[in-house]
Amino acid sequence: LVSRPGPITDGKPSVLLFFGTGDNPDDPYDATASNYYVFGYTDPDPLGTCQSAPLAPTWKNALDSGQRVWGGVSLDANYVYVTTAVGNAADACNLDNNTSGKYYSFGQGDGVTQTGSGKDLGGHALNSPVIYDGHVLSVNVVGTGTAYGDANWNNKTNFTPATAPRMILWDVSSQSKLPK
């Protein structure tokens, strides 16, 4: 698991958990693997005892060849959103110069791919998208921003506690430490 997961309680006694992979979930040692995934899990009894068998995913969707989720998922009331990068590591120096990352969206309950999912970003995203005003905002590694959604702004939003904006920042530091 490379990306930050997104949990939702949805007012029910179960927990929904979503995450994207940066490695092949079927065989993490498969150097030739090119398809990575976004998963949705439902834990029907999160406060109960642990199951003896691994929890099977509620749904899983393969991403296009080489697309990896490095930054995590973002959620609104109905959908799971991810942006991807093509490269061997989550830094700007290890990204593919020819193949762009993509934007994906899936239904939370069923994993159905949403209209517009799979669009090229025109670059790579190493962070999860931001949900704001009914739009999905993505910034690629060179700072170009893109908004997905309809032309209307000032909408009634579908916020949940899991939709707080979070960004991963990358900066060069000769001290190998993050600036304070």
Molecular structure report:
The protein starts with 5 loop residues before the first strand and ends in a 32-residue tail after the last strand. The chain is mainly β. A four-stranded antiparallel sheet has the order 1-2-3-4, with no helix packed on it. It is 0% helix and 26% strand. The protein contains no helices and eleven strands. The mean pLDDT is 78. The radius of gyration is 17 Å and the shape is globular.
Helix and strand succession?
Answer: EEEEEEEEEEE
Please state the CA-atom Rg, rounded to the nearest Å: 17 Å
Into which percentage range does the β-strand content fall? 25-35%
Uncertain segments:
none
For the largest beta-sheet, the strand count, sense and barrel status come to: 4 strands, antiparallel
The pLDDT mean sits at 78
The tally of strands reads: 11
Shape: globular
Helix residue percentage: under 10%
Biggest sheet, spatial arrangement of strands = 1-2-3-4
Number of helices: 0
Any descriptors?
mainly beta; four-stranded antiparallel β-sheet; 11 strands
In short:
By secondary structure, this protein is mostly beta strands. The protein has strands spanning 6-8, 15-20, 37-43, 59-62, 74-75, 79-83, 102-107, 119-120, 130-132, 135-139, 145-148.
Q: Strands, helices and their partners?
A:
Blueprint: E1 6-8, E2 15-20, E3 37-43, E4 59-62, E5 74-75, E6 79-83, E7 102-107, E8 119-120, E9 130-132, E10 135-139, E11 145-148
Antiparallel strand pairs: 1-2, 2-3, 3-4, 5-6, 6-7, 7-8, 9-10, 10-11
